[in-house]
Write a structure and sequence with these properties.
21 strands; about 20% strand; 10 helices; four-stranded mixed beta sheet
């Protein structure tokens, strides 16, 4: 190609190039930036688009470019109204990018955070569309006529977009994996690690189980739970806790029951039952994506509240948030490079980058794939699969490495410093000593007779004063307070000077040390409790983190 121009393999070098009128930057991550732009075709047609530009040179065969191709190819094959429409790959200012439709609106994570939370009926309608997308991704035929068997692997609120016209879009298929390898990918995936968002990953994702659609159903169940309860199913999740819940179904069930108890009392019983089945520990006990779609469609028909299309029409939508970008306000012809393009460094903001989580040998063998995938909207939801697992993965690897490390060999002892040898000293000649004169023996001393001791005097006897009898003071009656435990499945003891007492009626006193048993024996919780007569103390335990706090 001519100097200053780049081509993507398969692009016709003789065709007229498109122009992109860049409006503003929507988000930035470790992979690059996402811009909102107007694409002008050679024939003058204009389209509102989102452009995800990678931080790589088009001339390289970097894996990020191959993954971007894979994502565009998969989105093109799926062809579903619930999936972003892909226009093409393009080269802008020397950087390769994926051009997709732009959907004005907000993702579910934003709608969960606002005071005007998305209504239950609208959320169920959106879940039906997402479930249909997952079903199509699994069953849609690929180029060879066989089912694609695609698993999204990162279903979470920030990857579900609600448009101002009622559209529901599933975003970021960048780390999707074909369970049967029916989709040809340029980016090769590895083993020994996994990718995704920790708080939305199914238990089997932490085992040797291959990618399967039941894991996406679980992720959708986590999204539904968060929208209905106002909190995540796994709050402050860390890898060690998630591994434990994956390996211990009983502990997971206790955590799930505790979480489901926080759902609104007025929640529809059938919806609560569907949610419970979607969040089952065993993948085989969850409904299929097709069954979830049918159930959500039926529920949406009879749930109270406005339908999704009416709610989005009546809602006041905020303006899309933006951040400063180097290409803001520029008009760029596809395939050209400006002279100052490389003079300005690209900000390396990895706060929303998707990381692979390296796992210990023998634990995970599912594939890894890309960093963040394309995004197209108003908040920094565009920054891809925000796993935020980099630091967590390092902590997990360090945890395993600590147990397996070999202590360093002791350093050799330093050689002793040479000791100076003193020169021999000649002894001085001895001086003769005169003998001392002999003294005569003393004369004997005559003994002096001793005086006899005085006669003993009689000692007067003193009679003791009579002691008045003291009546014993009766002990105060023991009074009790009440200790209540949430959840009741956790055994709790209060230990003090008077002994150990289980939850229930506990003798009043101060300085009781709190112990709890999460199935592995009583452990101190580092909390001290004062029991006041006739008052109730509530001990709230977190079975996910093995902690207990005390409320009054």
């Amino acid at each position: 190609p001519a100097r200053g121009r780049f081509m993507i393999t398969g692009m016709d070098p003789h065709r007229q190039q498109r122009q992109f009128v860049v409006h503003h930057c929507l988000g930035r991550g470790g992979y690059g930036e996402v811009y909102r732009a107007t694409m002008v075709s050679p024939g003058g047609l204009r389209s509102d688009v989102a452009v995800k530009l990678l931080r790589v040179d088009v001339g390289s065969l970097d894996d990020a470019v191959r993954r971007l191709r894979d994502e565009g190819r998969m989105l093109g094959l799926l062809r579903h109204p619930g999936i972003l429409r892909v226009h093409d790959l393009a080269v802008l200012d020397g950087r390769v990018g994926l051009v997709t439709e732009y959907v004005e609106g907000q993702d579910l994570s934003a709608l969960f955070d606002l005071h005007d939370r998305i209504p239950t009926r609208c959320l169920v309608e959106a879940a039906a569309v997402v479930a249909d997308v997952l079903d199509v991704a699994w069953s849609r035929a690929s180029d060879n006529g066989r089912p694609m068997h695609l698993v999204h692997r990162d279903i979470k609120p920030s990857n579900i977009r609600i448009g101002v016209h009622g559209e529901v879009k599933v975003l970021d298929f960048g780390i999707a994996r074909s369970a049967s390898e029916q989709v040809d990918r340029e980016a090769r995936t590895g083993t020994g690690s996994t990718v995704g968002s920790l708080a939305y990953m199914a238990p089997e994702r932490f085992t040797r189980a291959p990618a399967a659609p039941a894991a996406d159903v679980f992720g959708l169940g986590c999204v539904l739970y968060e929208g209905l309860s106002g909190r995540r199913l796994f709050v402050d999740a860390v890898p060690v806790d998630m591994f434990r819940l994956a390996a211990e179904p009983v502990a997971y069930l206790a955590h799930l029951e505790e979480a489901l108890a926080e759902l609104p009392n007025e929640l529809d019983a059938e919806l609560a039952d569907l949610l419970r089945r979607m969040l089952a520990h065993a993948a085989g006990q969850r409904p299929t994506a097709s069954e979830v779609r049918l159930a959500c469609d039926a529920l949406a028909e009879r749930l109270p509240g406005p339908p999704l299309r009416k709610w989005v029409r009546d809602r006041e939508w905020p303006r899309a948030s933006t951040i400063p970008g180097f290409l803001d306000g520029r008009t760029i012809t596809e395939g050209t490079v400006s002279t100052e393009a490389y003079a300005v460094p690209i900000v390396d903001d990895r706060s929303s980058e998707t990381f692979r989580m390296d796992l210990p040998p023998g634990v995970i063998t599912s594939d890894t794939a890309s960093e963040a995938a394309v995004a197209s909207a108003g908040r920094p939801w565009l920054t891809g699969f925000a796993l935020v697992l980099g630091a967590l993965a390092v902590a997990l690897v360090a945890w395993f490495a600590w147990g397996m490390r070999t202590p360093p060999a002791p350093a050799p002892a330093p050689a002793p410093a040479p000791v100076p040898i003193p020169a021999p000293v000649e002894p001085a000649p001895a001086t003769p000593v005169e003998p001392a004169p002999v003294q005569p023996e003393p004369a004997p001393v005559k003994p002096v007779p001793a005086k006899p001791p005085p006669a003993p005097q009689p000692v007067p006897v003193v009679e003791p004063a009579p002691v008045e009898p003291v009546e014993p003071v009766p002990p105060e009656p023991v009074r009790f307070g009440v200790v209540r435990v949430e959840p009741a499945s956790v055994r709790v003891e209060l230990r003090g000077e008077g002994g150990s007492h289980p939850a229930g009626s506990v003798p009043s006193g101060s300085g009781y040390e709190l112990y709890a048993d999460f199935g592995q024996g009583m452990k101190p919780m580092g909390r001290y409790v004062d029991i006041v007569p006739d008052l109730v103390v509530t001990v709230r335990c977190n079975v996910l983190r093995y902690t207990c706090d005390v409320d009054r």
